[in-house]
Records
---
Amino acid sequence: MCGIVGYIGNNRAVPYLLEGLEKLEYRGYDSAGIATVENGRLRILKTKGRVSRLEALIASERQSPARIGIGHTRWATHGKPSDCNAHPHESQNGLFCVVHNGVIENYHALKQTLQAQGVTFRSETDTEVIAHLLEQNYDGDFVSTVRKTTAMLEGAYALCILCRDFPDRIVCTRWGSPLVLGKSEEGCFIASDVSALLRHTNDIFYLDGNETVLVTAQGMTFFDKTGAPVQKQSRHLNLDVSAAQKDGYDHFMLKEIMEQPKAVGDTIRSRITKNGEIAFEDFHLTDDEARALQRITVVACGSAYHAGAVGKYVMEKLARLPVEIDIASEFRYRDPVLDAHTLVILISQSGETADTLAALRLANEQGAKTLCIVNVVSSSIANEGGSVIYTHAGPEIAVATTKAYAAQVSVFYLLAGYLAQKRGLLTGDAFRSYVRDLLALPDLIGKTLNDCRAQMEALSQMFIPLEHAYFIGRNLDYACAMEASLKLKEISYIHSEAYAAGELKHGTISLIEKGTLVVALCACSAVFPKTLSNIKEVKARGARVLAVATDAENAALSEVDYKVILPNVNALFSVSLEVLPMQLLGYYTAKNRGCDIDKPRNLAKSVTVE
Ligand code: G6P
């Protein structure tokens, strides 16, 4: 969603701001803007549309001598995408300007009060109230003015602020939305996401909730929530700048699809000890604690929810615990029944998804054990969870997740094995064989990608003219069908639906007619004969069927129109192979339809509003 950048240093600011905004484009946005301080004046330039449009608009500004500036990409919530709703927003008399990520929930009341006092609003945004409040609260001290102002705000915010009276400093603060900082010989950098800092430094300062930081060309001074100065340590990230580059691929999505053997390998291998046990850095249960667990509730949004659906099947099968799964936006408002014997697992690539974060807070409040599966280090969800297991997928840039999903699914294989062993249900040779299969998975993923990439590019041709597609499967295949369908629809804009194969005949089969394309996922050997019957039912009504199955079922699939054959694999891990041709199908279909693959319309990588 929205992105923030800031720079102050010895060099010209505008090129850094534009470069930072380009790095944040992947988050999804609809307008962009920057502000600098020049000759004692705040200078704001902003526009609806892409950063490239902003760049064209301010071509001459690249030579601007300003050494300080802030920038923003906006994803519209309050007010349509437009030039005037774009950030930065300025105070009435131009003393302050601000860029903001998050939502101010009490903005309406604040706006009414300000309007009653004669303040004129120039935009429809919630953010503009912050600019005006800063001016009203101004006491000659930049940091204290910011603190007075944020004390009046309810909701979530990451703020980066300029003040005309202090042309040599930026003040930032946050609550509920992330903000990171870094320093190099060129100066100090601020961003809402580390990917915009990696070109300059790998040593990242994470601003905690309610902390404030005063940034100058020389360095940063941090203040805790009481306003007292606080020493902060940076965290060194072992990330290569190439992680945020396309490395010769046409799109980040394809690059990230091809990175899955590494993402899954890094996630799994670091959790298998020399003795062949499964162990996590921050999540430990004694055998008694594992046996005392009565229930697991998995909560997430989007593809992370689909990864949780895989987790449900695998954990129930191995650990014999009831697992319920819910969408975070539903869970948080349904008054869930939780207790100390419930393990609530929250899954999030970004670690900032508003509904998932709220669900975590609710579970914490109700005394459940919470475990978060997160990709972005030190994100809000990682920080607030009782325990965290990081997926080691590396930065994911494409809006449509692939490698982070694959890594989340792998964590569930680890967790299922871990819980099953602790509960005495998977021991001895059976456990060792499970771990061996797990360690073999990254190579099988690599082989599957190599084997099916060209075939999926060819098969995508028949999807290009489609208006509708259906994905069916049972058990683990159904979990995969949900993700496969989402991958196709979110980037190619073809309407697609996933159905539990056995449910199709309770309504949806009436939509099947001659030529309808049905993708049948049937890698799950335990239910293969059942799915085969469903394939026959849709074929009998004229559907064309593309089946995805392992080599073991190849011979039985003589009647389907097209098939993708996967290597044989431990049946519990089949989704990790089956999803690969589906990601490639979505990718090549979208590419051939001329869609903006890495930045699909209306979507955001990190959904920080509910
Ligand atoms: C957005 C992204 C999805 C992602 C979902 C949850 O919709 O486009 O790819 O699965 O948010 O995000 P999270 O960061 O919590 O995994």
---
Amino acid sequence: MARRRNPKHSVTKALTNPMTENLRPDRNGIARAAALLQAGGLVALPTETVYGLGADARNGTAVAGIYAAKGRPSFNPLIVHVANADHARDYGLWSDHAEVLATAFWPGPLTLVLPLVPNHNLSSLVTAGLDSVALRVPAHPTAQAVLQAFGGPIAAPSANPSGRISATTADHVLSGLEGRIDAVLDDGPCTVGLESTIIGLNHARPTLLRAGGLPIEAIEAALGGVLAIADSAEIIAPGQMMSHYAPKAQVRLNAKDARAGEVFLGFGQIDGDLNLSPSGDLTEAAAALFDHLHALDAMGKPIAVASVPDHGLGRAINDRLRRAAAPR
Ligand code: TXA
Ligand code: MG
């Protein structure tokens, strides 16, 4: 879809302009994204998981702008995106487990929560005052190009209003945040389509904090052991709050078919108005999940969802679906 675009804005003007620029993933667009970030602006960026709402992680005002644009509760810490594991070590206290997981899965859909190093220059808003930091090296070439051009750490939660479905296209970003952010860098749909898997390495044992785009089985194989599961007392990730990723409509799970007045999200042979994957492929289902929920939510009716197998990426899909269906 064509969007209004005015590359002639000065950076300062753009920051006070209610219009959100639509940037292309070419040299000019990437340079513009980096300049906006350097000036303390908010830029939505594609990553392989979901679009992130990026700001300079060292600039407290810019980071505050993220919370404001998203309407996000301020106690929720943000993921810091860096170009490679060397840069991650500037912020997170490194360990053998960090080395194993970073070597196996970075760049990629994995976030590591590490103890904060002393004398880091991150805004305390990024970590919401915790003594740990969530770090990720994204694989998406456009995210990597912006990290290189910008030359610093980018704080980026998913680019959606707080508590709503994550954005996997630039249109999703704009439908939630247009006029509230400076720019979106449009590079088409995200390939993974689920947020990163988050592993806490600031616990006695490596701990699963959020299921996501990297299957748990792969992480356990790399570590050679079973992950601990965070107990609710230590849960601070909003991805673990019960009503999160919520569409506006009511959601009913494990449905065999639609009741009167419902729209139906199918899986495999249980078909519906939309189907997460007619062939029953969980990777395809993950990539389609938020897009299909957005599309069904736009129809303004309650949403019934077919059951999805609870292994591999199905665990993360079911985690999102349970939150979408939770009472709020
Ligand atoms: O794939 C993703 O992870 C996307 C892309 C943009 O990178 N980002 C994303 O960010 O999903 P966000 O902010 O929506 O989710 C970050 C999660 C939150 O649940 C937050 O609470 C958790 O990471 N988190 C951040 N710092 C943490 C910390 N120090 N300890 C525990 N959880 C933390
Ligand atoms: Mg989010």
